[in-house]
Amino acid sequence: MKYRSFGNIDWQASALGFGCMRLPTQDGEPGAIRENEAADMLHYAIDHGVNYLDTAYPYHDGQSEPFLGRVLQGKYREKVKLATKLPCWEVEEKGDFDRLLDEQLKRLDTEQIDFYLLHALNKKSWKKMHSLGVLSWLENARSSGRIAHIGFSFHDEFPVFKEIIDAYQGWEFCQIQYNYMDVKYQAGKKGLQYAADRGLAVVIMEPIRGGRLVDPPEAIQSLWKKAPIQRSPAAWALHWLWNQPEVSLVLSGMSAMSHVRENVAAAERSQVGLLTQEEQELVREVREAYQALSLIPCTQCEYCLPCPNGVNIPRILQIYNDSIMYDKPEYGIKGYNNWIPEEKRADQCEVCGECEEKCPQGIAISEWMEKIHQELAR
Ligand SMILES: NC(=O)c1ccc[n+]([C@@H]2O[C@H](COP(=O)([O-])OP(=O)(O)OC[C@H]3O[C@@H](n4cnc5c(N)ncnc54)[C@H](OP(=O)(O)O)[C@@H]3O)[C@@H](O)[C@H]2O)c1
Question: Please, which residues bridge with residue 117 across strands?
């Protein structure tokens, strides 16, 4: 395994971390982890040098933390750092901080959580957490030894990311969504650099865009075939990240032993600057070729909002575009039905045309809403 410096913390992280959000499950039931198989995968990763496991309160319907508590008993716990996250959406009052952390320590069957994050911060949740005094609570939790390091994970735009970092000198690490397609999305490359420049370790989530970058459509496969060194699409996505010095650790949510073996092997070869100029240029070509497959020219400018009927137009267009671009209809169906509440779905459109008057790209939004609902609603 290769190890990398971890911000200002005096510890070396394995290049690859294990994200415990996509463990193998029975019959697609998120809470029914196939424990023997998942345990073999984790043990293989740890035996090959992975020293950072990432979980969270809600993963696998709340079963990821207790599963880790069981699987790490004995010699494995001391070989890894354990990261989990405060579910900010469960916090209504100050007393919830201790209640949730104590429950997580019990679930994980550990005395101390090595890396504790505020989960999925955005503008709204950050404001709420901050006003409830989360920062002084985190420092107390650290002084009492229940957590060791303080960080946050993030899903919002760069200015919010900057605001959160600037608000507190004590952040030690953060976790952002970043991959070769999402260079300008959410915190993006700007966020990576901003955090790294301030001495934070930066942990990467969704490096393979949650699995969308594997099994690419023909147009992308033919580009990868041009590469001087042949790699799988997953390996390209991971190496593109490891190539960058600001990246401290790449988390992958591996759901099969074959993923663990392949990603561990890739991590063993990883290094900053491994990709040649020619290879980086190829990744840029792949990004552009994916973007060219996008059917609807939506730029997510949000000028179409607010919709008088509450339709979440940009998010719906994005989910649909992604399912076409990555040739993954199943992800489109899952995203539409799981992430868009019924009152914000495309069938709420009453074809008033207000959004179309405001759309700078001239997109026939109401026609798309009808088509997308027909194709994705279940
Ligand atoms: N804090 C947050 O808000 C937040 C949000 C998202 C994620 N996370 C954390 O970050 C971790 C990483 O994100 P992610 O799970 O989205 O990572 P990812 O690596 O982008 O996606 C994981 C998926 O990629 C596919 N995959 C991985 N390795 C592969 C390989 N070698 N060959 C073929 N397919 C492969 C699998 O898809 P299939 O299962 O479809 O085969 C797997 O489920 C999560 O597990 C979680 O711990 C945190």
Answer: 85, 151
Q: Half-sphere exposure (CA, 13 Å, Cβ side) for 319?
A: 24
Question: Ligand 1: which atom is nearest the Cα of residue 117?
Answer: 1
What are 84-107's pLDDT values in tens digits?
Answer: 999 999 999 999 999 999 999 999
Parallel, antiparallel, or unpaired for β 147-154 and 113-121?
A: parallel
The beta strands (E) that lie in the chain are given as 3-6, 9-14, 16-19, 52-54, 81-86, 113-121, 147-154, 173-177, 201-205, 249-252
What's the full length of the chain, in residues? Answer: 378
Site to substitute for ligand 1 among 20, 21, 44, most atoms within 8 A of C-beta: 21
Report the distance separating Cα 102 and Cα 125, nearest Å: 21
Phi, psi of 202 (to 5 degrees): -115, 115
- Each residue of 19-48: pLDDT tens digit? 999 999 999 899 999 999 999 999 999 999
Note the helical H segments in 134-232.
134-143, 158-167, 188-197, 218-224
- Which tens digits make up the pLDDT trace of 156-180? 999 999 999 999 999 999 999 999 9
Residue nearest to atom 29 of ligand 1 (CA): 259
Report the pLDDT value the prediction gives residue 74, as an integer from 0 to 100.
86
Range list for CATH 3.20.20.100 in the chain: 3-283
Query: Alpha-carbon distance 38 to 151, whole Å?
Result: 27
Q: Is 201 helix (H, G, I), strand (E, B) or coil?
A: strand
CA 137 to ligand 1 centroid distance, Å: 31
CA–CA gap between residue 281 and residue 265 (Å, rounded): 24
Q: Is 207 in the pocket of ligand 1 (CB under 6 A)?
A: yes
Mean pLDDT of 263-272: 98
Q: 0.85 cut: is pTM over it?
A: yes
Supply the residue whose CA is at minimum distance from atom 25 of ligand 1: 211
Q: Using a pLDDT cut of 90, give the percent of the chain over it.
A: 98
* Maximum Cα interatomic distance, the chain, rounded to a whole number of Å: 63
pLDDT at 358 over 90: yes
The candidate with the shortest Cα–Cα distance to 339, out of 322, 361, 364, is 322
Architecture of 3-283 per CATH?
Alpha-Beta Barrel (3.20)
